[in-house]
């Protein structure tokens, strides 16, 4: 048992232990000059000279490391032995760096003590001070958050998630947590992961197939048709055999649903949400955006300098109008151009391909975001509302109140529509796709107090690609899942 003296000494140490200061607050000058502080972090690099040793330390709060300097014999020698990746604690005084030229004041830490918290084997640690390809980083997913790129992406991801949800909250949306296990194929494309128990039995019953969800939309509609405005935000899954830089088997979707809404309401809400998000990250992620703009190419085609990144974002935040055109107008524009030969032919009634979407944004609309609306019913899911007011008119030229938001360099970011609220039309389409009786409950929403309503889904990782300039979607998610790969 502890003695009274031992207990008192332990409490005393806990009470008087100095609070840690984070690296970002020192670099940005938020912590005061000449303050004595304690920092924790991981060694990025070490440079030992005859009378002084320099160590760059990161703690995850900033894209830039903090320079720690010491000329004290014992501390200097300890610092000189540090290897990349070692976790450390320094105590010292915040000081200004020697000013060279007219650059803004920069700060460093003059350390008088150094403690190794966790050693790092320099011979086996994979991230030494040299170039590492993105493929190499993907092979070391458990350690790649220590790199500048993934650290910056992770901080951006957190802020973007907050900003999107704050924008919706300010517009009166309620968050609902929709299920990941489901019995329906919302999109009707058949790209589903079937779920069974470990013993191979039908856990939910012999007459029920269970899947990983492709969308939380149908469940979010339950709440929008009762509470007015709701959204769900979580992982979704597609068993699509695609190895492109824009596709994952598991990715995150933000899916708002709005009652008493028309197509124009959906466009206005999604545009405002994107502007609000861009405004937030320009204010809160300045250091990371600077890193994305200026990081060197380093021989990797997926990592290039993006000097225009922030100017592109400023144009969205301020006065760039989002172009709005119908699907028919988009097809006419694509058919009228003669300078580009597309791999996929352009014709009315066919889905727009990525190459078509990017041409519309980047060439035809001079780099502006584009809403394409009123797609043919034949290339859209069953739940989208027909534009024909006459319930009996449905033919090969029938369009639906749908839209896609296209961005330069990305293609489709958001897809949405008005949802078919007329019971007979919806029932007819569901019968065609053999969705009854398993989706009887969805049809019931139209029988009991139906209203015009709609919603949309935003591909979260694609938005991060646009905001960061990172070219491969596998590098903006913590642990990517794609065909042939499910390590970790």
- The general outline is elongated
Low-pLDDT ranges: 1-16, 297-304
Q: Write down the secondary-structure element order.
A: HHEEEHEEHHEEEHEEHHHEHHEEEHHEH
Structural category: alpha+beta
Which CATH class of the largest domain is shown? Alpha Beta
Determine the CATH superfamily of the largest domain. Bira Bifunctional Protein, Domain 2
Radius of gyration: 27 Å
Mean pLDDT: 90
Largest sheet: 8 strands, mixed
How many strand segments? 15
Number of domains: 2
Count of helical stretches: 14
The end-to-end distance, rounded to whole angstroms, is: 43 Å
The CATH topology label of the largest domain is BirA Bifunctional Protein, domain 2
CATH architect. name of the largest domain: 2-Layer Sandwich
List the strand order in the largest sheet.
6-9-10-15-14-13-12-11
Strand content: 15-25%
Proportion in helices:
25-40%
Describe this structure in a few short sentences.
This protein has 488 residues and is an alpha+beta fold. The chain has helices spanning 4-16, 23-27, 73-80, 134-138, 148-170, 217-227, 263-284, 286-294, 309-317, 327-336, 354-364, 423-432, 440-447, 460-468, and strands at residues 36-48, 53-58, 66-70, 87-96, 107-118, 174-175, 181-182, 211-212, 229-237, 250-259, 323-326, 370-373, 402-407, 411-419, 453-459.
Describe what this molecule looks like in 3D.
This protein is of the alpha+beta class. The chain has two domains: 17-118, Beta Barrel (OB fold (Dihydrolipoamide Acetyltransferase, E2P)), CATH 2.40.50.140; 144-475, BirA Bifunctional Protein, domain 2 (2-Layer Sandwich), CATH 3.30.930. The protein has 14 helices and 15 strands. It has an eight-stranded mixed beta sheet with strand order 6-9-10-15-14-13-12-11, with helices on both faces. Strands 1-2-3-5-4 form a five-stranded mixed beta barrel. A hairpin with a 3-residue loop joins strand 13 and strand 14 (411-419). Helix 5 packs across helix 7 (263-284) and helix 5 (148-170) packs across helix 8 (286-294).
């Amino acid at each position: 048992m502890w003695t009274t003296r031992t207990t008192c000494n332990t409490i005393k140490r806990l009470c008087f232990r100095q609070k840690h200061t984070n690296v970002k607050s020192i670099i940005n000058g938020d912590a005061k000059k000449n303050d004595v502080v304690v920092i924790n972090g991981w060694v990025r690099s070490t440079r030992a000279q005859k009378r002084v040793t320099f160590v760059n330390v990161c703690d995850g709060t900033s894209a830039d490391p903090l320079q720690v300097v010491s000329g004290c014999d014992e501390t200097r020698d300890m610092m000189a032995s540090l290897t990349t990746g070692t976790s450390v604690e320094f105590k010292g005084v915040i000081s200004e760096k020697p000013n060279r030229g007219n650059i803004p004041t920069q700060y460093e830490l003059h350390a008088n003590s150094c403690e190794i918290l966790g050693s790092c084997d320099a011979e086996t640690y994979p991230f030494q001070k040299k170039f590492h390809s993105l493929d190499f980083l993907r092979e070391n997913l458990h350690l790649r958050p220590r790199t500048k790129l993934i650290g910056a992406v992770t901080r951006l991801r957190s802020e973007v998630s907050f900003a999107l949800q704050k924008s919706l909250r300010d517009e009166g949306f309620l968050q609902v947590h929709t299920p990941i296990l489901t019995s329906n194929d919302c999109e009707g494309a058949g790209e589903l992961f079937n779920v069974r128990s470990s013993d191979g039995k039908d856990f939910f019953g012999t007459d029920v197939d269970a899947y990983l969800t492709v969308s939380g939309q149908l469940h979010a509609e339950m709440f929008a048709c009762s509470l007015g405005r709701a959204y769900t935000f979580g992982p979704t899954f597609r068993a699509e055999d695609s190895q492109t830089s824009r596709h994952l088997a598991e990715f995150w979707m933000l899916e708002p649903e709005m009652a008493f809404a028309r197509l124009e309401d959906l466009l206005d809400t999604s545009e405002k949400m994107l502007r609000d998000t861009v405004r937030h990250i320009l204010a809160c992620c300045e250091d990371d955006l600077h890193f994305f703009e200026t990081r060197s190419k380093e021989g990797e085609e997926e990592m290039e300098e993006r000097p225009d990144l922030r100017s592109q974002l400023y144009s969205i935040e301020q006065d760039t109008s989002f172009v709005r055109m119908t699907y028919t107008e988009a097809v006419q524009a694509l058919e009228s151009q003669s300078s580009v030969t597309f791999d996929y032919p352009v014709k009315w009634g066919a889905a727009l391909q990525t190459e078509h979407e990017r041409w519309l944004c980047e060439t035809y609309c001079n780099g502006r975001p584009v809403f394409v609306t009123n797609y043919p019913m034949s290339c859209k899911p069953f739940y989208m509302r027909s534009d024909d007011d006459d319930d009996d008119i449905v033919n090969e030229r029938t369009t639906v109140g749908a839209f896609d938001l296209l961005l330069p360099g990305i293609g489709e970011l958001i897809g949405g529509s008005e949802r078919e609220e007329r019971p007979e039309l919806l029932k007819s389409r569901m019968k065609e796709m053999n969705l009854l009786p398993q989706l009887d409950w969805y049809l019931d929403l139209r029988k009991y107090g139906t209203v015009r309503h709609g919603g949309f889904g935003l591909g979260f990782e694609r938005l991060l690609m646009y905001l960061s300039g990172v070219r491969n979607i596998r590098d903006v998610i913590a642990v990517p899942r794609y065909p042939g790969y499910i390590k970790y």
